Amino acid sequence: MQYAPVKGMNDILPDEIDRWYRLESAFRRVVSRYRYGEVRTPLLEHTELFVRSIGETTDVVEKEMFTFARPKGESLTMRPEGTAGAARAYLTNKVQSREPLTRWYYLGPMFRAEQPQRGRYRQFHQAGCEVYGDLGPLVDAEMLDMLVTFFHEVGVFDVEVCINSIGGEAARARYRSALTEFLRPRAQELSEHARSRLETNPLRVLDSKDARDRAAVTEAPSILEMLEGEDRQHWEGLLTALDALGTPYLVRPGLVRGLDYYSRTLFELNATSGELGAQNTLCGGGRYDGMVKSLGGPDTPAIGFAMGLERILLAAAAVPAAKTPFCVLAPLGRSAQLTALAVARDLRAAGIAVDLDGRGNSLKSMLRRADALRARLCLVIGDSEVARAVVQVKDLAGHSAAEVALGDLPGRIGELLATTPSPPEGA
Ligand code: ATP
Ligand code: MG
C-alpha cells in the first residue's frame, strides 16, 4: 500500500532546497543588518492564545486552525502564524524587563486548514519580524523599506507596497459604525458570510475575496478620513518618513487584513506580475499596539510582518539556484573502489563535495551520470591508477583529462573546481 501525504502539505526535495537556503539566508542576512535576532517558539500553543490574539471572528480562528484536544480538557493548536507565539514568548521570558526595545525574527512552518491551491497550502512557511517597544512611525517606515530591500535582493522587483492606517480603538469604533451604516442598506448584495459579519465585524467585509463583497464596498467610507489627533500624526509621520527614504507606496484605505490584533499602520506587499493570481500577497503586517497588554503583559507598542516563502519562491521563479561545485569519483574494480573510499574522505575533509559512485558500473555509464548531474570534474581510478598512486581527472566541460598524484589531490581538485566553469545547461 502507498501512503498519500496529508492534503495541502508538501515535501521539499533536495533539488529544490538550494532555492530555500538562498531565500532563507538572504532573509537572515538582511534582517541581521537591522539587528533583528532569531526567536524559535514551539509549533504548538494553547488554543486560547490564538483565539485571544488573532480574534474570534477571523477566518483563521473560525475555520483554519488545526486544533486537537488533550486529556483534562486541554486544547492545543498548530500555530497558524508567528506573532501570537512570539508575543507569548516575549511575556513568558519577561524580555521587557531586560530591554526596552526588542527586535525579533522567526522562520518556519505554519499550519492552516484552508482549501489548497497554487500559493496556498495547509503547511506553509513564513519568515517574519516583530519589534516591541517602539511606537513608530519611523520604525514602521524602516520596516517597509527593509522589506523592499529584501525583495530586491532575492530578485523580486515587481512588488507594490500598499499601506493604510486603521487608527486606535476610538477611530476603529467610529469607523465600524460608519461602515455598518453604509453596508446595512446593501446587505442583500453581500455574500452570506459577509452578511453574517455585518454586525459583529464589518471591517472583515472589506477584506473579503468574494466578488459581490468587493463590488459592494467600492464606495465605502475611508477610515483615513476619520483619523484624529495622535492617530493622524502617526499616519502623517509614516508618509513623511517613507518619502524621506524614497520608498514608493500606494495608499489603500480599504486595506484591513484578516487578523484582529492590528492598530494604526497596516501594510501588504503584492507581486504585480507572475502567475500567483489571488495569491499575490507576498507579505502582510502592521502595528499591534494593544496585543501584548491584552495577553496580560505591560502596555507595549509593537509592529511586525510575515511573508509566505512558497509565494516568494513562485514570484522569484526566474532566479536560478546556484549549485555548489562538486566532483564525481568513478572507481573501476574492487581495489579501486576501496582506494576511492579513502580518497573521497580526504577530499571531503578538505571541504570538497564528492559524489562517490560505488555501484560497480561501467566507466561509460559513470561518465554519463556525472554529465547528467552537471558535475565539473570526474575522477577516474582503475587498477593501473591504484598501482601508480594517481587518478585521471576529467574536465567535463572542457573534455580534457590530466593525471594527478594522490598526494596532490585535495589541493589540485580545489583549484580546478574553483576555476573550471560548470558545463552549460542542457550540454
Ligand atoms: P490570504 O489573504 O492570501 O489568505 P492572509 O491575510 O491570510 O493571506 P497572513 O495571515 O497575513 O495572510 O500571512 C502573511 C503571509 O503568509 C501571506 O501574505 C502569504 O504570503 C502567506 N500565507 C498565508 N497563508 C498562506 C497559506 N495558506 N499558504 C501559503 N502562504 C500563506
Ligand atoms: Mg488567509
CATH topology of the largest domain: BirA Bifunctional Protein, domain 2
CATH architecture of the largest domain: 2-Layer Sandwich
Radius of gyration over all CA atoms, rounded:
28 Å
Q: Ions, cofactors, ligands: which are bound?
A: adenosine-5'-triphosphate, magnesium ion
Terminal-residue CA separation: 39 Å
Uncertain parts: none
> Could you estimate the helical fraction of the residues in percent?
25-40%
What's the story with the biggest beta sheet? 8 strands, mixed
> How many H/I helical runs?
16
What fraction of the residues are assigned to beta strands by DSSP? 15-25%
Which of globular, elongated, flat, extended, rod-shaped describes the shape?
A: elongated
- By DSSP, the count of extended strands is 16
- Give, in spatial order, the strands making up the sheet with the most strands: 1-5-6-11-10-9-7-8
Domain tally:
2
| Mean pLDDT rating | 92
Task: Kindly name the structural category.
Answer: alpha+beta
Describe this structure in words.
It is elongated and about 90 Å long. Helix 1 (14-33) runs antiparallel to helix 5 and helix 5 (138-153) packs parallel to helix 10. The strands form three sheets. It has an eight-stranded mixed sheet with strand order 1-5-6-11-10-9-7-8. The protein has a five-stranded mixed sheet with strand order 13-12-14-15-16, sandwiched between helices. A three-stranded antiparallel sheet has the order 2-4-3. It folds into two domains: 14-167 and 227-315, 2-Layer Sandwich (BirA Bifunctional Protein, domain 2); 326-418, 3-Layer(aba) Sandwich (Rossmann fold), CATH 3.40.50.800. By secondary structure, it is of the alpha+beta class. The chain contains 16 helices and 16 strands. Magnesium ion binds next to loops. Residues 59, 258 line the site of magnesium ion (MG).
